Amino acid sequence: xxxxxxxxxxxxxxxxxxxxxxxxxxxxxxxxxxxxxxxxxxxxxxxxxxxxxxxxxxxxxxxxxxxxxxxxxxxxxxxxxxxxxxxxxxxxxxxxxxxxxxxxxxxxxxxxxxxxxxxxxxxxxxxxxxxxxxxxxxxxxxxxxxxxxxxxxxxxxxxxxxxxxxxxxxxxxxxxxxxxxxxxxxxxxxxxxxxxxxxxxxxxxxxxxxxxxxxxxxxxxxxxxxxxxxxxxxxxxxxxxxxxxxxxxxxxxxxxxxxxxxxxxxxxxxxxxxxxxxxxxxxxxxxxx
Length: 289
Prior knowledge:
The protein is an alpha+beta fold. The chain has helices at residues 3-17, 21-30, 35-44, 82-85, 88-103, 108-112, 122-133, 183-196, 208-223, 229-247, 262-269; strands at 60-68, 71-79, 138-145, 150-157, 164-165, 167-174, 276-284.
């Protein structure tokens, strides 16, 4: 890697972890420039902690949703600057692309090859917009929730135009209860997902490889404490259980009433008929890039 490339990676690692230059440079050197491995290494050494700062990313753009008859689509489209993301031409393009996502059930290849209102394909219009604006613009991801005997909801946090913002959620609840009766709960749960960023619905839905990696990181952090291995195992199990609770929707503290868990609230309103969280999707601009 060139010196400029190394310095750029060190800068990015510092922004993500909040760790000093020297430690970040050492981690980048040791992992040959791999940002993800560098974060793991710093966490194992106890220098960087798992925190919300690790979600910070540089990519700009916006999230759009589209709804019709209990069916929903959501897209993330990225630009290089926030200035472009707030450009009306960019926003109108994104909204129409979200409609294309709706018609094509979230399939990006089909979206890009679909004909838009001006009779050009989405891909051609995307290329034209890139040429006109002079920035890299990408359709990063797309999702679609259909009816399928479920009640679906969408939520855009701090929308600056209708169905347009920086953070969006789609939620699907399996129940026979009329939507009007759980409209407020569906909105609140969508807001909870936006704020709490769960990784899965429940423990069995979590990526087991990710759990093993988290356990390994926790143990490495504890080794420097000098505690007995049996004590370390016990503490590690407790920390892992806390990780599961913090990152699975049903086990998270309910943001509206933190003394309760999400599953407790669902049980309370399920007396008339059972409510089951079938699926959810959370898109935040640039997250994970």
